[in-house]
Design goal:
There is one protein chain. The radius of gyration is 23 Å and the shape is globular. By secondary structure, it is α/β, with parallel strands linked by helices. The protein starts with 15 loop residues before the first helix and ends with a helix. Strands 1, 2, 3, 4, 5 and 6 form a 6-stranded mixed sheet that branches. The protein has 12 helices and 6 strands. The protein folds into 2 domains: 101 residues, no CATH class; 169 residues. Strand 3 and strand 4 form a beta hairpin.
Length: 317
């Protein structure tokens, strides 16, 4: 029988996963992110020396990109040579990080609020490159489901998650609210809340303070009453039912419809980051218990999503 594995050169095929990792290796500001983590990283004066920050950060990002738990990430490092290569573990290493090491690194990032600092750092770089104009913002929110099962160690659902109704259906989980640059669609602010928190409640917190105009869907109707006078101009969409009643043969209604189309064209950019998280990175359900841990993960994903969306411009720059 012919042995197919002998003499097979696996390095000639440029798989989509390899192309993706090569792309992200080029655009992620590794040195600046490492400098951000270094003051909080253990020095390892006793016992085995810790793994390099770069290695742990690359492993952490692969977890986010491919939706891997801590045990699954450990197994993937053993099973997938590409992952070891990306993390710099393919030469001279006598051990691989186990799931406890991966867990401790994630907890270190959560404890020191480094996910938010990473997003801020990424956005500073994008602003320096002229990719974020900050003249206007668009805000929106989306629901993220959480496990509703009680078949776990505590025998209860996550107490920080809540239920809400949307479109006649009930959802249990959390809500992620984002503010994006109205020109580029890059995310500048992320807030995580329980699913039953109304969008208007955190709308002002999604603004960075430099915008003059804000665009939002009909879920934010009435936000002007909660905002400081003349702080920003809110452009909130008309309710769909009301818009359907417009008579396009009437000149005034036709103008209203055209205004709604223009607002929708700008507001649509807030949907792109959600698509990146849910389709590109496969983030569809919360992984951890508690809002803080899940918000930290979501914030990290949006920072990486910004780099993914701006990758071509970053390469040219």
């Amino acid at each position: 029988m012919t042995q197919l594995g002998l003499g097979l050169d696996l390095s000639t095929k440029r798989t989509r996963k390899r192309e993706f990792l090569d792309e992200m290796r080029r655009v992620v500001p590794w040195l600046k992110l490492i400098a951000l983590i270094e003051p909080h990283y253990p020095t390892g004066k006793t016992g085995r020396p810790p793994f390099p920050i770069a290695t742990m950060l690359q492993i952490h990002f692969m977890q986010q990109w491919f939706g891997l738990s801590d045990p699954a990430m450990e197994e993937a490092l053993y099973d997938v040579p590409l992952y070891r290569e990306f993390a710099g573990l393919d030469g001279g290493m006598v051990r691989l990080p186990d799931e406890s090491t991966i867990l401790r690194f994630r907890h270190l990032l959560e404890t020191h609020g480094l996910a938010v600092q990473m997003l801020t750092l990424v956005n500073e770089i994008l602003t320096e490159k002229g990719l974020m104009l900050k003249a206007g913002s668009a805000v929106d929110a989306t629901l993220i489901a959480a496990p509703s099962s009680t078949k776990n160690g505590s025998g209860t659902r996550d107490p920080e998650m809540q239920s809400t109704q949307k479109g006649g259906n009930w959802y249990f989980g959390m809500k992620m609210h984002i503010g994006v640059d109205a020109d580029s669609g890059l995310v500048h602010t992320v807030i995580g809340t329980a699913a039953n928190v109304h969008d208007i409640t955190v709308a002002q917190a999604l603004l960075h303070g430099e915008e003059t105009d804000v665009y939002a869907d009909a879920g934010y109707l009435g936000i002007e009453k909660r905002c400081e006078a003349d702080a920003v101009r809110w452009h909130v969409a008309m309710r769909p039912a009301k818009r359907r009643k417009l008579d396009l043969s009437d000149s005034l209604d036709a103008i209203y419809d055209q205004i709604e189309r223009l607002k929708a064209g700008i507001r649509a950019k807030v949907e792109h980051p959600f698509r990146i998280l849910k389709r590109q990175f496969g983030y569809m359900k919360t992984r951890y218990r508690g809002l803080m841990k899940n918000t930290a993960q979501i914030t990290t994903l949006f920072a990486l999503g910004n780099l993914w969306m701006a990758r071509r411009a970053l390469r040219k720059a």
